Amino acid sequence: MNFNSQSPHDPAGLHGVPFEAMQLLHQSFQAVEQRRAVMTEEIYRSQSSRRRQHSRQPSAASSQDGADAAPSVSAKELATARARARFLEARAAEEARQHEDREAHQAAQHQARIRSLHRQVAGLLSSKRQAAAALAERDREVAALRARMAEAEEARAAEERTAKSLRWDLAQTEERYRRAVQASAGLQVELDGVKCQLSILRKNAENDINNNNNNNNNNNSNPAFHRHVQQISADNDDSGGSGSGSGSGSGSG
């Protein structure tokens, strides 16, 4: 049984067992094999010696006693060696069984660890998918909020444009009102001037009327004035009804 052989798929030793442990086990088996070889050699020598002693067949009693003693000692050593070999074999078998049990236990632990890791990986993948779905939902919410913000910004811009237009219209209206107030003030000044002129003209007319009345009264009592008027009328009749007139007037309002 060669424990030094290593699989290319398992460079650390047999079935994942550490190489140092396999070396120790191999050394134990080598020691057992060496001890077994030594015992086998001792047994072979003892049997050879016994055959030689039987072939000689000594006649003396002392020689017979010595011959009987020697084989008995060799048999004892042989029994001891055999017992030692059986003990070493049993111990090696027990060590091999314990090693197999440890290997099976480690393999079971590794399998359990692998299953646990698989469950952890599956849980992480599920969590990752849930996080991705939640992130996609958040992205959609953010996109909707951005669209609403864009609409609100557009509405605000439209309101600002409307307010700007209204402010411009208000400024134009205020300017027109200011100009109208100024024009009204100017018209009021002109109206006051016209009223003043009318008042003056009225007074002048009243004075003229009074003067004319006085003049008429004076002319009616003046014969020369009557003759002058008659002469003017005759001249007008001679001219064939021709006449001329001129007038001027001014007004503002």
List the helices and strands and how they pair.
Blueprint: H1 19-56, H2 61-220, H3 223-238
Description:
The structure is a single chain. With 253 residues, the chain is mostly helical. Helix 1 (19-56) packs antiparallel against helix 2 (61-220). Helices cover 85% and strands 0% of the residues. The chain contains 3 helices and no strands. The protein has a domain at 14-121. Residues 92-105 have a biased composition (Basic and acidic residues). Residues 240-253 have a biased composition (Gly residues).
In sequence order, what are the helices and strands, one letter per element?
HHH
Q: What is the percent of helical residues?
A: over 70%
| Count of distinct strands | 0
List the total number of helices: 3
Q: Roughly what is the average pLDDT, rounded to an integer?
A: 75
Distance between the termini: 140 Å
Low-confidence stretches: 1-14, 58-72, 240-253
The proportion of strand residues reads under 5%
Radius of gyration computed on alpha carbons: 76 Å
From the helix content, strand content and strand pairing, which structural class follows?
mainly alpha
